[in-house]
Design goal:
The protein is an all-alpha fold. The protein has one domain. α2 packs across α3.
């Protein structure tokens, strides 16, 4: 299920697949933050800051 989230599948869809009644349960169990995800997020932030500074 973590892979589905990493692939961009909606957490709500993953929640339905695993049968959880609350999105918080799904996210606490399956939403692991990988180093690649952290790098991507920081790259996006950096790009936005560069664009804003132009």
């Amino acid at each position: 299920m973590s892979l589905l989230l990493a692939l961009g599948v909606s957490p709500r869809v993953v929640m339905e697949i695993v049968g959880h009644s609350a999105i918080e349960m799904t996210m606490n169990v399956y939403a692991h933050v990988s180093l690649d995800n952290q790098r991507t997020a920081l790259d996006l932030l950096s790009n936005q800051l560069v664009e804003a500074g132009k």
